[in-house]
Amino acid sequence: MILELNKNTSESLVNEIAQKHEAIVVNETNAYVLITPSKLKTSLPEYKQYIIKEVAVPDDIQLASKLYRSEKREIKIADHLIIGGNTHNTVMITGPCSVESEEQITQAAELCVKLGVKVLRAGAYKPRTSPYSFQGMGIEGLRLLDKMRNQYGLKIISEVRDSTHVQDIIDHVDIIQIGAKAMYDHGILRAAGKSGKPVLLKRGFGTTLQEFVQSAEFILSGGNPNVILCERGIRTFETKTRFTLDLCGVSFLKEYTNLPVILDPSHAIGYAYGVPDLTRACIAMGIDGLLIETHPNPKVAKSDAAQQLNFEEFTALYKSVDTVAKAVGYKIV
Questions:
Q1: Pick from 179, 174, 154: which is nearest to 98 by CA?
Q2: 184 by DSSP, 3-state: which?
Q3: Sign of the dihedral defined by the CA atoms of residues 258, 284, 173, 159, in that order
Q4: Distance from CA of residue 84 to its chain's centroid?
Q5: ∠ at Cα 204 (198, 209), nearest 5°?
Q6: Pairing mode of beta strands 199-202, 227-231
Q7: CA distance 148 to 204
Q8: Helix intervals (H) in the chain
Q9: Which residues pair with 230 in a beta bridge?
Q10: pLDDT at residue 44 greater than cutoff 90
C-alpha cells in the first residue's frame, strides 16, 4: 500500500507509522510517501487526518504502478529533451557498443550531430560473458565521453558494470544505464536511487516482468523518480537469433506501469541485418525511445561486432522511421 501524508505531519509521526507498518519513506515535494509491503490492504483510520491519498496495490509493483500514478512519468534529460510524459516523442539514442578510441567515438559523435541525434551511447565498463574479451576502457572511456559532450553538446548514456565504479558513472553521464547483467545488483540500484539522475534499467534476459519492475522499485523507493525501462530481449528456446524481443511484455509495461519504455533491437536480435525491421516494429508500438548500436567499422569492433550497424546503414534507417512514427502519432527526436 502507498500512503501519502501531508507535509504538516511531523517527522516523528511519519517515522512512527513507517516503523509500525514496515514502510519505506520517500520525501516528495508536497507530501511524505510511505510504501508498505503489498500485504497491507486496509486503510489506517487512526491516521486518517494526515492521509492525503492511499492506494492498495495487488503486488509489489507500487510506485511504478498506474494505480498510483495514472500518467506516464516525465524524465527530463535536458531543457528541450524529455523522455516520456505526454510528449509523444521517441528519443533516438545511438553510438557504439563500447568506447574503443578517441577517433572512433569522435566519429560516432559527429554522426549524431549530422543527423540530429541528441544522445550518444557507449560503454566504458563492459560486463562481458568471457573474462578474456575486451572489458572496456574504464575511466579513460568515460573521460572521452565527457569530452564528446563538451565538444558536441550531446547527452551521454553509459553502463554500470558493478558497484565498484558506480560513482564514476554517476559523475560522468547524463543517463545511468543499468544493464541486463546488473539488474539484480542492489548496490547499483540503491546508488542509482540516491543519485537523482535519469536511470535506464534494462530487463535481464531471464527476468519476468514482475521481477523487472520490482528492480525499478528499488530505485524509485530510494527517492529517484527518474526511471526508464528498457526491453532488450529475453532468452527463449530459439537459437537463430541472440534473444527474443518481447513486444508482448512492452504492451504490459505500457498498460500497467507509469514508467517510460525504451527498446533495444540491437541486443535483441544480435545481428545487424534485422535491426532496421525490428526498429520500425518498435516505433509502431508508440514507445518513448530506441537504443541502437552503430560503429564506423563494425567488422573491427571490440564488442558485439555482429549487431552494430555501420554509419551508412544507420543513416538509412534513421531516414526511414519518421513515417512510421507519424502513423502512430509520435515524433522521432
A1: 179
A2: coil
A3: positive
A4: 11
A5: 85
A6: parallel
A7: 29
A8: 11-20, 102-115, 139-152, 166-172, 186-195, 209-221, 247-256, 265-269, 275-283, 311-320, 322-327
A9: 202, 262
A10: no
Q: What are the cell numbers at 47?
A: 491516521
- In whole angstroms, give the CA distance from residue 25 to residue 2: 10
Q: What is the pLDDT at residue 37?
A: 83
Q: At 239, phi and psi to the nearest 5?
A: -115, -10
Side chain identity at 283, as an amino acid letter? I
Walk me through the domains of the chain, giving residue ranges and CATH numbers.
Answer: 2-55 (3.30.70), 74-332 (3.20.20.70)
The DSSP secondary structure of 278-293, one letter per residue, reads HHHHHHTT--SEEEEE
Q: What is the pLDDT at residue 158?
A: 97
**pTM of this structure:** 0.94
Q: Which of 6-15, 18-27, 185-194 has the highest mean pLDDT?
A: 185-194
Residues with Cβ within 8 Å of residue 74, at least 6 apart in sequence: 82, 83, 84, 85, 86, 87
Residue with C-alpha cell 547483467? 181
- Cell 526498429 locates to 279
Pull the grid cell for residue 187: 548496490
Q: Give yes or no for a contact between 196 and 226, defined as CB atoms under 8 angstroms apart.
A: yes
> Are the beta carbons of 313 and 272 closer than 8 angstroms?
yes
In angstroms, the CA 60 to CA 281 distance is: 31
> Cell digits for 111?
554522426
3-state secondary structure of 298: helix
Strand (E) or helix (H) holding 268: helix 265-269
Give residue 312's identity as a one-letter amino acid code.
Answer: E
Nearest to 220 by CA among 50, 98, 69, 103: 69
User: 579513460: which residue's cell?
Assistant: 140
C-alpha distances (whole Å) from 278 to each of 113, 291, 311 are: 24, 12, 18
**Between 165 and 94, the higher pLDDT residue:** 94
The single residue listed with the C-alpha cell 534499467 is 201
